[in-house]
Amino acid sequence: METQTKIKILLAEDDANHGKLLMDYLEAKNYSTSWAKNGKEGFEMFKKNVYDLCLLDVMMPLKDGFTLAREIRAQNKTIPIVFLTAKSMKEDAIEGFTAGADDFITKPFSMEELLLRLGAILRRTSNRASVDESIKIFEVGAYRFDCENQVLKIGKKEQNLTTKESELMRLLCVNRNDVLDRNFALNAIWKDDNYFNSRSMDVFVTRLRKYLKGDPKVEIINIHGKGFKLLVNK
Q1: Do 34 and 10 touch, CB atoms closer than 8 A?
Q2: Does a cis peptide bond (omega within 30 degrees of 0) precede residue 80?
Q3: Model pTM?
Q4: Within a domain: residue 85?
Q5: Using one digit for the tens of pLDDT, what is the confidence trace for 153-187?
Q6: CA 176 – CA 141 distance, rounded (Å)
Q7: 137-140, strands of its sheet edge to edge
Q8: 44-73 tens-digit pLDDT
């Protein structure tokens, strides 16, 4: 007896062979998948149904993936959007993230990679959606983090944070005791996941670790190949 509702995916892919292969694979992995053959059909399906994630090819007839993503974003601000692209990441990245992308998967890719990436995005966005955006105060062990005023406080000691330190701390708090994906954090805060921004983020993580030394039950750990985790032990 099935007790868990299937994740519903909108797949927009104009290549018949690739679209059929993707749909069959996702269905076999227990994802309920609706396949649109072009961007226009994809938007019509999106308006009539409820989905948990959109998997969109960039190059499609009648309406390309970027245009479709913008139309979807106008109706739903939080649904995860993943682009399938055969072009270089650099070429598509700026327009894609502007259109509201959560991630890119560059063709050719393995089905195993696709499954892992979708799983990570769904976990990440589920955690993000579960936290009310109106929440401005986070209790982190002995610390009190006021993200609106960018202040981290323990006892009578206050640490003023820079804007990026505060944004990073908030993402860590939202994903408390779970992995904060490195690329997601880079694109959310720095708007680009290039090498230099990645090194910059590492510096900010080191700073936050220093600020959090006042409570041994709180630590930021590296998750190799994935990102960071804010551990708050009880």
Answers
A1: yes
A2: no
A3: 0.55
A4: yes
A5: 999 999 999 999 999 999 999 888 888 888 888 88
A6: 11
A7: 137-140, 143-146, 151-154, 157-160
A8: 999 998 898 999 999 899 999 999 999 998
